[in-house]
């Protein structure tokens, strides 16, 4: 899909076609994120920092869940507090 850059005051804006806005479910005033990838640049409505935070939370959850499972397998009198 071709995007056109246009002058907006002292800035440059990008014209995002309706088809792309509809697929991304974005509109006027929404924030988009531009991230660099090995293939080039990616524009997304999703904050990549939030994804990184969620990955860390998932890892923490599973590590904690495994710890509880391991502790639950031991008789109560062998678990040190």
Summarize the structure in short.
This protein has 81 residues and is of the alpha+beta class. It has 2 helices and 4 strands, in the order ββαββα.
Molecular structure report:
The structure is a single chain. It contains 2 helices and 4 strands, in the order ββαββα. It has helices spanning 18-24, 48-72; strands spanning 4-8, 11-15, 33-37, 40-44. The longest helix has 25 residues, at 48-72.
Total number of helical segments?
2
Low-confidence runs = none
CATH class of the largest domain: Mainly Beta
Fraction in helix: 25-40%
Taken from the alpha-carbon principal axes, the silhouette is elongated
Supply Rg: 23 Å
Average pLDDT works out at 78
Question: What layout of secondary structure does this protein have?
Answer:
Blueprint: E1 4-8, E2 11-15, H1 18-24, E3 33-37, E4 40-44, H2 48-72
Antiparallel strand pairs: 1-2, 3-4
Based on the model shown, name its key terms.
Pemi-like Protein 1, Chain: D; 2 domains; 40% helix; two-stranded antiparallel ribbon; 81 residues; elongated; alpha+beta
């Amino acid at each position: 899909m071709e995007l056109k850059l246009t002058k907006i005051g002292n800035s440059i804006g990008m014209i995002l076609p309706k088809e792309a806005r509809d697929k991304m479910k974005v509109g006027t005033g929404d924030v988009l994120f531009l991230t660099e990838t090995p293939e080039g640049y990616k524009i997304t409505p999703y904050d990549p920092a939030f994804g990184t935070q969620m990955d860390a939370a998932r890892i923490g959850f599973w590590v904690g869940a495994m710890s509880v499972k391991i502790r639950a397998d031991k008789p109560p009198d062998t678990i040190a507090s």
